Amino acid sequence: MNPMPKIGMEPIRRRALIDAAISAIGERGALNVTMSDIAGRAGVSTALAHHYFGGKDDLLFATMRHILSQLGNEVRAAMAGLAGADRVRAIIAVNLSPDQFRPEIIAAWLAFYVEARRDAALGRLFRIYVRRLHSDLMSGLSHLPRASAISTARAIAALIDGLYLRRALGEGVEDSAAAIALVEDYLDMALAPHPSRGASPMHEADFVIIGSGSAGAALAYRISEDGKNSVIVIEYGGSDFGPFIQMPAALSFPMNMARYDWGFQSEPEPHLGGRVLATPRGKVIGGSSSINGMVFVRGHARDFDHWADEGATGWASADVLPYFKRMETMADGEPGWRGTEGPLHVRKGPRDNPLFSAFIEAGRQAGFETTEDYNGSKQEGFGALQQTIHKGRRWSTANAYLKPALKRENVSLVNGFARRIVMENQRAIGVEIEVHKKIQVVKARREVIVAASSINSPKLLMLSGIGPAKHLRENGIDVVADRPGVGSNLQDHLELYIQQESLQPITLYSKLNLLSKGLIGAQWLFLKSGLGTSNHFEAGAFVRSAAGVDYPDIQFHFLPVAIRYDGKAAAKCHGFQAHVGRCVQNRAAQSVFGRATPGRSRRSASTTCPIRTTGATSATAFASPARYFRRMPSRPIVAARSRRARLFKATRNWTPSSANTPKALSSVAPAVWVRLTTP
Question: How much is the pTM?
Answer without folding.
Answer: 0.71
